[in-house]
Write a structure and sequence with these properties.
The structure is a homodimer of 334-residue chains. The first copy, chain A, has 334 residues and is of the alpha+beta class. Chain A has helices at residues 3-6, 8-16, 64-81, 101-117, 169-178, 188-198, 204-212, 226-237, 252-260, 267-271, 287-297; strands at residues 25-27, 34-36, 43-52, 85-95, 121-129, 135-144, 160-164, 218-221, 240-244, 278-282, 301-308, 313-316, 322-323. A seven-stranded mixed sheet of chain A has the order 8-10-7-11-9-12-13, with helices on both faces. In chain A, strands 3-6-4-5 form a four-stranded mixed sheet. The interface between A and B is large, with 73 and 72 residues. β3 (43-52) of chain A pairs antiparallel with β2 of chain B, so a sheet runs across the interface. Chains A, B: Its EC number is 2.7.4.16.
C-alpha cells in the first residue's frame, strides 16, 4: 500500500497510534496546538532540524528505521549540548505519494524508539505530500533550570577543551558510502563506522549530567566538525584555542580503515561532521571530577586542547608545529 | 547573487540581522537551542506547519514577501484557535542553491513583518539546500493560562456554531489562479479574493480575547474547510451539528465573482480550505457578549448553526431540507 492511498488523516492516525504519553504533556496530537507544562522553575529549550532526501540522506544507504532514529537523534543532541532534559518533539513530513506504507511504518518505529530511549513524547506535527523527495522537519523542546543551562559563549582562557567518544567515524563512514560501499555488504569495521553515520547516539544523559554538576563552561555538539564547532564556542566566547592533533580520540575501526584506504585523510577527525559527540570547555581544576563523571556514565571523554585569550583557533602537532587542515567543516550550499 | 554563493552561515546571519527581541526570550538565534521563559502560571502551546513548493504555493502566484507572511500566519492561526498568545517561532528552510538572494530577503522581510504584527520573536531555525523546490517549516510557540485554553473537544449540545469573517474567498481565489489568472492582472474583486489566499490574516487577537473572556466552548481555525473543521470539533466533542447554508458569511467580492464565473460553486464557502478564519462553539446565553466583543475587535462573526447531540454533521437549506455538499474538504495525498 502507498501513502497516497492511505491519505493524510490515515497517516496521522497511524503515527499517533504508537505514541506514548510523556512528562508535562497536557494535550498531545490532535488539536490545533499541543499543550505542555514546564516543570517548576525550568526554562524552555527549543531546537529544530530539517533532513532532506539526497542532501542529508539517501534511501539506498539509510534504511527507514535508522532514518527515523537519526531524525530525532540530531535534535536530542542539540538539547544535550545545552545541558537540557529532552521532553517533547514535533515531526513534520513531506512525503512523495508513492512512498510504501512499510517505509513510513519503519520510519515511525525508529523515531518512536529513539523517543522512548530518551523520554521524549511526540506531541504534534504536520504531514503533506511532496512532489520531490522526502523532507523531514523535527522540532524538539527540552527544559533545564536557568543556572544550569550551558551556552556556547561561556568559555574562559586556559579552560581545557574536551571531546566525548571518538571523532571521524561518521565522516569516514560517509566516505565509504560515497565510494560505493553499501551498508548490506561491508566488513565489521566498515559497518561500525557506517553505523556511527546512520544511527548516531546523542549524548543526552552525559550532557545533562555535566551541566547539572556545574563542571563545564561552554558546550556544543559536533555536527559540522570539531574545528568548526569549537570555532563557534571560540567566536561566541570572544576567545581562541589550541587543539592538539595527536590528542583527538580515534576509534580502532577508524585507524584500521584509514590504514586500508590510504586515500582517506586524518583531517576527517578534525573536520568531519555528523559525529554528534559533545565538545565542551571546563576549568582545569574540574579535570578529575569530569573523569569520574564520565566513568560513571560509561562514555569516554578526553581533553584535546586549551582555550586561549588570543582569538585564533590553531591545530598543533606533537612537536609544537602548526598544522594546516585541508578541510574546515561542513557548510550547506557550498 | 544566489544563495549558493552566500553560504549557510551567511544566510543565517542575513535572516538574524532583522530579528527583534521578544517577551521571554533569554537566548535567541545562535546557540544549539533557544532558551525562553514562559510567563508565570502559563502553559506552552506548540504547533508546526510545512509549506512545500508546488504543493502549498507556486512562485508564479506567490510573491516572496507574501509567502513569508503566510508561512508564519498559518501557524499563528493555530495558536489563535487555542485562544493562546503567540510568542516564539522557529523557521527552517530547504532552499534550491540557485534561489536569488532578493527572493530570500523579501521572504524574510514578509516573515518578520508578520512576526512584528503579532508580537512573535524568531528564536531559531535551520537552513539547508534542497535539490527540488523550496520547503518551509515553521514551528510556533505560544502561551496561555491553563483554564483559558480552548480545545476542539469542549462543544456542548445546543451551543451555537460561529464563524469569523467570510468564507470561500481564499478557495475561490485559488480557483481563479488555477484557471490561469495571474495576481498581476486581475480586477479589484479578483485581487481581494486572491489576497485572502496569498496573504491571510490570522485571527490572533480575537481568538485570545474570546478565550480570555471565557465565552467559547470549542474552537478551531478554518484551514481544511468549515465542514471538515467543524467535523473535527464534532468528532472530538462526540457530538454533531446542523449548519445553515444560507447563514454562511460571504463577501461582496465572493458573490460578485460567483455571478461572473458560473462554473464556480457555492460549496467553496462550505468546504474551501485556507480561510484561516475561526470556527467556534458557544452557549446561546453568550450570544450578546460575543457580538459586543466582536464589535470591539473590529472582526465580524455570526452564528451559522447549532451543535446537536446526535453525532452527524448536516447542512440544511432555508426550507429545512438537507443539502448534500459535493466537496467535503482538503485531504493531502488524495
Amino acid at each position: 500500500m502507498k501513502i497516497g492511498e492511505l491519505g493524510e488523516f490515515g497517516l496521522i492516525s497511524r503515527i499517533a497510534s504508537g505514541v506514548a504519553n510523556g512528562k508535562g504533556v497536557i494535550t498531545g496530537i490532535g488539536d490545533d496546538a499541543a499543550v505542555t507544562a514546564l516543570s517548576p522553575g525550568m526554562q524552555l529549550l527549543t531546537s529544530t532540524d530539517m533532513l532532506v532526501e539526497d542532501v542529508h540522506f539517501r534511501r539506498v544507504w539509510h534504511d527507514p528505521c535508522r532514518l527515523g532514529r537519526k531524525s530525532l537523534a540530531v535534535s536530542i543532541s542539540d538539547i544535550a549540548a545545552m545541558g537540557g532534559i529532552p521532553r517533547w518533539a514535533l515531526l513534520s513530513l513531506a512525503v512523495p505519494p508513492d512512498t510504501p506504507l512499510e517505509f513510513l511504518d519503519a520510519f515511525t518505529r525508529g523515531f518512536l524508539a529513539m523517543a522512548a530511549e530518551h523520554g521524549v513524547a511526540l506531541i504534534g506535527g504536520d504531514t503533506c505530500s511532496s512532489r520531490a523527495g522526502l523532507v523531514i522537519s523535527v522540532t524538539i523542546m527540552g527544559e533545564q533550570e536557568p543556572g544550569r543551562i550551558v551556552r556556547r559563549s561561556g568559555a574562559c582562557p586556559d579552560d581545557d577543551i574536551w571531546v566525548t567518544g571518538t571523532l571521524g567515524d561518521a565522516a569516514l563512514g560517509l566516505e565509504l558510502l560515497e565510494k560505493g560501499k553499501l551498508p548490506s555488504s561491508v566488513t565489521v569495521e566498515e559497518e561500525h563506522l557506517i553505523s556511527r553515520l546512520l544511527d548516531p547516539s546523542p549524548r543526552a544523559a552525559v550532557g545533562r549530567a555535566l551541566a547539572e554538576a556545574g563542571l563545564v563552561s561552554a558546550m556544543i555538539d559536533v555536527s559540522d566538525g570539531l574545528l568548526a564547532d569549537f570555532g563557534h564556542i571560540a567566536e561566541l566566547s570572544a576567545l581562541g584555542g589550541t587543539i592538539h592533533l595527536d590528542a583527538l580520540p580515534l576509534s580502532p575501526d577508524f585507524r584500521a580503515i584509514l590504514r586500508s584506504h590510504p586515500s582517506s585523510h586524518p583531517d576527517l577527525a578534525l573536520a568531519g561532521g555528523e559525529e554528534y559527540e559533545l565538545a565542551f570547555t571546563a576549568p582545569a581544576a574540574n579535570r578529575e571530577k569530569i573523569v569520574q563523571l564520565m566513568k560513571k556514565s560509561g562514555i569516554d571523554a578526553r581533553p584535546v586542547g586549551i582555550v586561549t585569550a588570543s582569538p585564533e583557533v590553531t591545530v598543533v602537532l606533537a612537536d609544537g608545529s602548526t598544522y594546516a587542515p585541508q578541510n574546515k567543516g561542513y557548510n550547506h550550499f557550498t
